[in-house]
Amino acid sequence: MRWDAFAEACPQIASMAEERLRTDEVVMLGTIRPDGRPRLSPCELDFAADRLCFGMMWQSRKALDLLRDPRLVVHSVPIGRMNPGGDIKLAGLAVEEREPVVRDLYTAVLRRRIDWAPDEPFHVFSLDVLEAAVLRFGETAAARLALRWDETAGFTQLRHPDEPA
After folding, report:
1. Which of 36, 103, 124, 150 has the greatest count of CB atoms below 10 A from its CB?
2. Cα–chain-centroid distance for residue 153?
3. What is the pLDDT, as a whole number, of residue 30?
């Protein structure tokens, strides 16, 4: 589901994810290579047109991966070994955004953020969210968090791995 629908379906995770991703501006993006092996690439992202968007250089390897097989995973960039911000994990399908209005909104957001936007041609994909999770470790139970969402099961607060069974 598109980001706006996901945010409505699971505000508990979407709000944390959006805050973190807007702050970090970069994620680790997992795609699938032609031979089936995984590819992990840093990728900038922006929220535009009610979508979570990824801009990519024209015909880059990760863009070609997504054009061939739209499955992807997004992981927030850990900030050190203890990673106090926790992990944001999103999985889903890439949607190639070809509509001029969406591309224009994306470039406007990008220009506001970094005072630059690419010239055509370039790729813009958005994430169709199928699964989401947040995992945060901490010294206290209050600091720990383990949340999961998918379209079938909906939102679930999980037992944290550090909590006794």
Report:
1. 124
2. 20
3. 98
pLDDT at 160 over 90: no
In the 8-state DSSP scheme, what is residue 142? T
Taking the alpha carbons at both ends of the chain, their separation in whole angstroms is 34
Give residue-wise pLDDT tens across range 66-86.
Answer: 999 999 999 999 988 888 889
Beta bridge partners of 48: 51
pLDDT tens-digit series, residues 94-110 = 999 999 999 999 999 99
Do residues 29 and 77 lie in contact, with contact meaning Cβ atoms separated by under 8 Å? no
Sign of dihedral through CA atoms 59, 61, 62, 68? Answer: positive
Q: Measuring CA to CA, which residue among 30, 33, 61, 28 is closest to residue 45?
A: 28
